[in-house]
């Protein structure tokens, strides 16, 4: 049984503008899934269906095989947590500590458990020093960490992140990549994220869906999806920089194995130089 699934999901705004067109999506336990597409492709709209913020015009969303309904919405939101692109949409309490405690409190947990979860997520995201700060006085990167902490404190099985690197500096992006890559193995979580940065996808994802004008136009492993350069160009996306570099070097007579992340590329180039010695 899949942890999260959509079946022929369709959604129209004002019964007129078709934003999602028959989406069939599957997420398994501990997967790391990227959803990529140009602006207006439908990524954020799709995410809002994953825990019942939006209701499909037709089709259905299932969590652990159960369709989302009004009767199970509270349980669904325990299972699937969403981090929005704009952290200000998610942070509203007087202090960081209170903001992180908001979700667990609404779950009806006892005070000791709430405090434990708050402390653990503060530690996990290295923001203990922000505990008593006013969220809206924080930097963009700090707000992002607080928003993620608020979702993690509810201990979801699936965490959905809409453009998680928006507003982060390069160090913040690197830290976030490391953090997200730890969640499936350490905590058994499924990670689903959208991004405009194709460079981010190979660093995190093990599966990719490509969305265009509300429809899935490609899906598969990182190599499969980014190997389809013609399709990506058609919908306004680029192949990540490392495979583009390797293709360029190979056209100049080198024989470097295809790679997608920095570490893979470094190893591939080093192997080629070793062969040339």
UniProtKB/TrEMBL annotation:
Pfam families: ABC_tran (PF00005). GO terms for molecular function: ATP binding; ATP hydrolysis activity; ATPase-coupled transmembrane transporter activity. Its main location: membrane. PROSITE patterns: ABC_TRANSPORTER_1, ABC_TRANSPORTER_2. Keywords: ATP-binding, Cell membrane, Membrane, Nucleotide-binding, Translocase, Transport. It comes from the Archaea. Belongs to the ABC transporter superfamily. This is ABC transporter ATP-binding protein.
